Amino acid sequence: MEDIMFLRCEQACEVARNVKTFKLRILDISHSTTPEPGQYISIVFPDCSGIRQQRSYTVIGKPENDLIVIAVQRTGRGGVSDRLHADLKEGVVVGATGAAGEITSEALIGASELVLLAGGIGITLPYGLIKSLSTLHDAGLPVPKTTLFLSAPDVTDIPFLGELLKLDMSTDWFSIRLFITRSPIRHSTVQFRSGRIQASLLAEHAQPDTVIICGGHSFAQSLHEQCNQVYERAHYLIESFSAPETDEITNGRPHPVTLYIEGIDKELVMQSDQSLLDGLEAHGIPIKTQCRTGVCGSCKIRINSGDIHRSADFALRATERAAGYALACCSFPQGKAVSISL
């Protein structure tokens, strides 16, 4: 059974256009592992149509042992985030699964140079890490030289901007580079440029030993490919918070696929535009899951036969892929039949 904790909203604050932060008090602290900045929790809450959903949010701060902070962006698409913006107010209690994710300040121990790449609300993970590193630095502990590359449509869309710029100007270990994709920048500066993050710009920096990428599926995949061209020896940590577009996988022409599940002797029919996770859940087959975007690794399965399309399975090592393992949330069946083991 998943570790469920209950959180009471202590404060809601708007920090940028369409972005709010929420301070959440953990009510059953003795029964849960308290999340650390950089980890994420999955809140269970109705969307705007009243359907209960599970949505993951990064912890960006931990002012007290039983008090955490998350940031939520309103998208206008009627999902859980929009409902939280409207209804999560002081005193409201929500349920959430316990802490998950391994990208914390502890994962950066020993790193000498760190590059963070974020798109849009993907800033939440880097921001949580930067805050933790700043606390360590203020305590006299060594921290990696850190550069944040952040892409956003407009300056007004960037939460925590003033705080990050102040940190850039007041320390020698942190710098920020902002790329504005929609609104024009009249005069480029060291911190502000128009356009998107490009490999040629990344190459201007020294070789980091650690690179962290956080953003939507397409952003994370594209930046990972670009970084591999210029940061060949870096260790990569990736968090993607959206699933791949199925049209990219099926070319808009889904077809039925027979899925065999060895070990429990089950056979079911699903569509090729469904992930294996969606197909299993649609037929009531229990499978552990958390992030649903290839980051946490909870839904690891083994492919015994048949072809699949893998997309953004960041949590798997190359040796695991070679051994036939896959993540059900971002694996799509190809051909007529696939056999798996849970």
Automatic annotation (TrEMBL):
UniProt-listed InterPro entries: 2Fe-2S_ferredoxin-like_sf, 2Fe-2S_ferredoxin-type, 2Fe2S_fd_BS, Beta-grasp_dom_sf, Cbr1-like_FAD-bd_dom, FAD-bd_FR_type, FNR_nucleotide-bd, MRET
A Pfam family recorded for this sequence: FAD_binding_6
UniProtKB keywords: Iron, Iron-sulfur, Metal-binding
Gene3D superfamilies attached to this UniProt entry: 3.10.20.30, Nucleotide-binding domain of ferredoxin-NADP reductase (FNR) module, Translation factors
Entry keyword Iron: yes
2Fe-2S ferredoxin-type domain residues: 255-342
Superkingdom of the source species: Bacteria
Cofactor (UniProt): [2Fe-2S] cluster
CDD domains from the UniProt entry: fer2
Residues annotated as domain FAD-binding FR-type: 2-106
GO molecular function: 2 iron, 2 sulfur cluster binding; oxidoreductase activity
Alphabetical list of PANTHER family matching this protein: NADH OXIDOREDUCTASE HCR, PROTEIN RFBI
Descriptive protein name: Ferredoxin
